Structures are given as C-alpha cells and as structure tokens.
C-alpha cells in the first residue's frame, strides 16, 4: 500500500464497509476499519439476503476475477417456475393473484424477473457468510472494539472520535458505514439524515431443512390476514442444493403490521425463546404444510427485529464535507420489502471505491461526486421499498411527526 497517503478511515464493519475496504485493498489505497464489536462473530447475522442483478454486478466489480468466483460459489441458487410465490397461511394453497405483490406504479409488479438475477435463478446468501467473504484480505486492517461516535476535522485530514474519548490517527477521509445508528451520519448531515421507526416488528427464525419439505424449491411469501390485530407474513428461500442436508438450517423472516408482533418490554435485545414463543403463537392455526417451520425451529436462534426506513421522500441534501461521507444503511436504511437495502449498500461500496481508485486515493471533490450519484439511486430505492412496505406491512411515515431511531 502507498506510504505517501494517509489512510481512509472506515466506521463500522458491516457489508457496505467491508466491500468498500476490499475495493481500497485492490487499488492499494491504505485504510483502517473501526468496529465496535470484538470480532466478526460477535453477533449472529445468519438471515439471508437476496441479491439483485445490480447488487451482484457491484460485488463482482469490487471482488474482481480473483475474488468473485469464490463468492458466487458460496451463494445459493433457487430456481422454480413461480418466482416469488405466495401461500395462504390458513389453507396452505398457492395464491395466484396477490395485490401485495405490487410495487409503486412507477416500479411495476414484483415479478419473477425482479427476483431472478443470474442464470435464471434467485441468488441468495446469508449476511454472516457474505460479511466473512468480504472481510478476506482486510483482517489486519480492522481495529475491533472501537466504537466511532463522531469525527474531528484537522487542517489536512480527519480523525475518528471513539466512545471512550480517544481519537484515531489522522486519515485522508472518513466513511461512515455503521448502520442506522450512525453518529457519523448525524454529524456530517447536521441531523438531516433520519431513520424512522415504522412501528412494524419482525422475528427471524431458523429450522432444519426437513421442516421445509412441504414447500419445495422456491422463494415463498406466506400471508395471514385473519389476525384481528393485523396482517402477518413470512418470507423464506428454499434452495434445492441444501434441501436434503440435515446439517443445514433454512431461515425464515416473519413480519407483521404495527401492533401484531410485540417484543416483551419492547426490548429488541431479547433473543431465543421469547421470540420463538411469539412466532409459534402467531402461527398456531396455520396449515400443516407450514407448521414445521415453527414447530421445529431452533428456539435459541430466534430474534426480534425492528422495521425502519429512511426519509421516504429521498436521501436529503446536506452541506458537503470533502473529507467525510456515508454509505449503506447509515444514509439510506430500507424496509425489508423487495430486498433492496443490501443491494443498494453494495452499490455505494462499488461507486465510492471506483472513484477513489481512479486517482489512487482521496481527492477534493470525491465526496460530492459520490453523493450526487448516490442520492439518485438511493432515493429511488428507498421510495420503492417504502411504497411496497406501505401495502405489505401497513406502515405509514409522517416525516414531521413519526418517531426516529438513533
């Protein structure tokens, strides 16, 4: 790496940050990643992410011909002729025409073509596996146990400020990629970047592959609108290659309209049996085709999650800071509707990495150039995700009065 440049400082070791770091690594640009956790395995992040054509293209651009084949081999490839198929939770029957499958009018329907990204397959990988693959080669550049709470500009650079009051070495640039609670995002945008609590809640769960036999290969959405408190849905991806492997679990993601899923004491740090019990209660009257997903779930792995979304009207504009910018959920958090969030995050990584790579590191104007392009596709993605969530989850954000997180 170049010894004539100060490092690029990266806050957070999430997907966007780690892929961005890989781009810097390939361009021989020095960098340091600061992550609050003590190791990459500190938190379980096993639920699966669906990769779009644009997301895969961004990942391939960054990893290159030497790194992408390994990533591709680790991905699951789900076929089937139905694309995103819907199942009635009570009858267990396939639903052909589902109103909830519509995105906002300008985006068109959620069709098989939207789900397929390469080779006629739906491509997916667990968040944890993706994170580990992105980290490869950058391990020596991560400082674990360092939580960034802000930054301090210097005459010729920037320093990250940590929770204990200490500061990092001087860097050429700071990139905030620490998710929806990003302090870097709040500081650089002067509070303009906001993440709203939609009020909707969810549960992640896992069960042995044998529990999914009744579904068969495909990407499935299960819908239950019989609950008097609101709608419940489950999304899962049943992959053919792993269907008979007893050592592999498949995951599912449950969500509900506001008020349906309520963690005890509204504490999202609670995991295990409390989350599993609520999932089992909500699915008690579901069809036998579906019941094994919950009756055979690994109770210890169940976890609550909060459905949040950035400003629906678009990524806000703030006074540009040449030395500081933000990527991923820190700037455009999305609902799970459409599976758009991670795919947009890796586009940030590829874009910012490409710009820096062209000139071998930081240059005056790079953050403005990046933010101008990111705001366009980021705003479109948030609007699409929010529009789908409005119909699917019953969420509604008022940008003046709705509560925010962070």
Automatic annotation (TrEMBL):
Keywords: FAD, Flavoprotein, Monooxygenase, Oxidoreductase
Pfam families in alphabetical order: FAD_binding_3 (PF01494)
SUPFAM superfamilies: FAD/NAD(P)-binding domain (SSF51905)
GO molecular function, one term: monooxygenase activity
Cofactor(s) recorded in Swiss-Prot or TrEMBL: FAD
Domain FAD-binding, first and last residues per copy: 140-358
PANTHER family the record matches: FAD-BINDING DOMAIN-CONTAINING PROTEIN, MONOOXYGENASE, FAD-BINDING
UniProt name for this protein: FAD-binding domain-containing protein
Naturally occurring in which organism (per UniProt): Zasmidium cellare ATCC 36951
